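Sample intake sheet
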Amino acid sequence: MSRLPNDLKPSWLTELQQKSWEPEILLSGIVLYGLFKTPALLDQFLDFAKLNLHDQYTDLDNLIALFKIALYWLTLGLILHLISRGIWVGMIGLSYTFPGGIDRSKLKLSEKFDRKIDKIPAIDQIIINLEKLCSSLFSISFMMFMMIVGGYFYVLVTLIIPVVGTDMIIGNSHKSELIESITSVYAMTVLIIGLIGLFDFVTLGFFKRFKWLSKIYYPIYRVISFLTFARFYRPIYYTIVTNYNRWKIGVSLVLFVFSSIFMLGIVSDTDPIPNQAWTRITMWNNISGTTAFSGYYDDQNDDFHSIRAQIQSDIISGNTIRLFVVSRIGLEDSIKKHCNYDSLIQLDTGRHFVELHCVSQFYSVSINDIPLDDLVWKFHYKQSTGQRGILTYIDVTDLPRGNYELDVQIPDEMYRRGSIANIPFYREISNAGYQVMPQNKRDEEEDSYLQIKPIFPK
């Protein structure tokens, strides 16, 4: 990448280059504010997609996970940039306050340590080096972001869309061994081509250095460059490679790739407990039937709720349990099959009544394995969580004090899924349900005296 001659360079560009720190700091602050909020919004979108768009969301999980990793790298880079700019500003102020720099005559150090002082660069040189570092960090941060997004786009276009599209057109039941073999060979070819491009990238152009090899690699390079949006970060890449130590850049790129792969396993973890991958506690699990998952209870979370079922609290002191079962797109075909929906919809009955009947018949509820019959269900939109589902009220007036488990099930003999939510709760009976023993007469007189004592004159 060549540079414009000085006589052709616009004056505004020269001025902007000299004051590039101003937009850098402004953009870093603004972008960081949005970056801290974006991962939570992505998680909300993923929850919405799981319920309303498609039940097979593995590819969407990977997309969201990779996008979050890209955002984490961008956030880290911008934080380091702001810290470096802070040091840079401090050094500029220090050079203005003390233009003479270090006064060695006042240190009175031995010759051995005096030589160490000689190795400290001049403060102006430190400022220049920090300026280069800050501008490089700002550019590298966006390069890492675009590299991850581009890498996923390559996999999406060349692998996910063709394979998933083939399955949708042909169908799993009609796929022959030949088609499966062709699909496997194609997928392996795409991955090998991607790995070749990745190897050339982290080795700073290994295949481009040999004349005969570069001719073979050139078509692969063009395809990969187009699909990975390389045109957006190629200038940054080659500028960094040609102005810094190549070995350090190569090692940094290798660490970047392996760190991103490692982060993918953590970020894409579907465990609802945050930071679960980092704990060293082994005598603990989040398996249904052994845990009181906080997402089941409305009073324990404002932003995090179960995508299966919820009740109002884990301690039921009243006489009613409000049970909300969340609707999921992945169960709709099973619901229609279970109630013979296609036949019922032909009857002279409102469609909404047929839909409510089918959904109500699909779910069964029990407390401590005792089925609850004749529950009345209604469609419900839960505004606090933005979830659609069905709602019912369970009378627990006659339920004694103690621990219980509310189980929401679907027909496992047909669909082999069984329980979808196992919600433990404690039945607490308030004191209003007990008769308070009267006090004796003397205690009542003492209590009365204590109540009126403050109004006696002193």
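Comment: The first helix runs from residue 11 to 18. Residues 294-432 form a domain with the Immunoglobulin-like fold (CATH 2.60.40).
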